[in-house]
Write a structure and sequence with these properties.
Blueprint lengths: L2 H20 L14 E9 L3 E2 L3 H11 L4 E4 L6 E2 L4 E8 H31 L6 E3 L9 H10 L13 E3 L1 H7 L2 H11 L5 E5 L2 H9 L4 E5 L3 H11 L4 E5 L7 H5 L5 E3 L2 H4 L6 E10 L2
Parallel strand pairs: 6-11, 7-8, 8-9, 9-10, 10-11
Antiparallel strand pairs: 1-5, 1-12, 2-4, 3-5
Helix pairs in contact: 1-2, 2-3, 3-4
């Protein structure tokens, strides 16, 4: 399954799962509202953000009540300003309120990932370095957060354990050597990328000799990163990883590495402050 297919499946499954956990058999509070009432609502952000999650919210309301019409005034990847109404909803008032929290939960999480990614990417402006995500995602949100990283201008690393090799310390110990691990990876799937994580220059030379496709410099100092770039001299792509935060991004990029990966894009996020306001309610004629 390619990422496009995985994304479509995730959108369907995620919407169904969120409605099941929040609504259950029935929204009892929504029963207080007359069944024939229709409403109009707006969704705003209380802070500057990068929007992400449109397709998930569309699918959520399609499943909940297809009579609800959604009018988007921004697209995934767009910058939204505080108090800017970026979504209008029209339809049965019960359904608007029933779907509110599930929709906002999706938007606030995915937009937080996209926003943090854009913040990191902006700091790399003027360099050729690509920002990579990791597998340190919220459980059950892997594909959605990977999509959000792309919306924020980042680049997806491997989606899971199945689409690329990343040979780490424990793999090397179990296989006996970097050479043995890379050789076995080639035997298993010659068409997949083979990346090796190294912690020192001796391991760097072993990964070069084994002809890895990429090498991850794990927790290298800035000085050692610069030395590694000079030593490798373009023979293989280098990724910097470990203790990557916004205070070190530009300095790491200036060492000459090709990629910087950061788990902070998906795990160290603060939900965007969103709000849905009902602005009109009337009886359906």
């Amino acid at each position: 399954m390619d990422f496009h297919d995985a994304l479509a499946e995730d959108i369907r499954n995620c919407a169904a799962r969120l409605l099941a956990e929040d609504v259950g058999p029935v929204d009892i509070t929504a029963q207080l509202i007359p069944e024939n009432q229709v409403g109009r609502a707006q969704v705003i952000s209380r802070e500057l953000a990068i929007l992400c999650g449109v397709a998930w919210v569309d699918e959520l309301f399609r499943r909940l009540d297809p009579r609800v019409a959604l009018i988007w005034h921004a697209a995934d990847g767009d910058r939204i300003a505080p108090d800017q109404p970026f979504l209008e909803l029209e339809g049965p008032a019960r359904s608007l309120l029933t779907g509110e929290r599930a929709a906002l939960n999706l938007l606030q999480t995915l937009s937080a990932t996209a926003t943090r990614t854009r913040h990191f990417v902006d700091q790399l402006d003027g360099t050729d370095v690509k920002l990579l995500d990791t597998r340190k995602t919220i459980p059950g949100m892997r594909v959605a957060q990977k999509y959000a990283v792309a919306c924020g201008g980042g680049t997806n690393h491997r989606i899971g354990l199945y689409d690329a090799f990343l040979i780490k310390e424990n793999h090397i110990a179990a296989c006996g050597s970097i050479e043995a691990a890379v050789k076995e990876a080639r035997n298993i799937a010659r068409d997949l990328t083979v990346e090796v994580e190294v912690e020192n220059f001796d391991e760097l030379d072993q990964a070069l000799a084994a002809e890895a496709d990429m090498i991850m410099l794990d927790n290298f100092s800035l000085e050692d990163m610069r030395a590694a770039v000079e030593h490798v001299a373009g023979r293989v792509k280098l990724e910097a990883s470990g203790n990557v935060d916004e205070t070190r991004l530009k300095a790491i990029a200036e060492t000459g590495v090709d990629f910087i990966s950061s788990g902070a894009l998906t795990k160290d996020i603060k939900a965007i402050d969103l709000s849905m306001r009902v602005i009109e309610v009337q009886e359906d004629k």
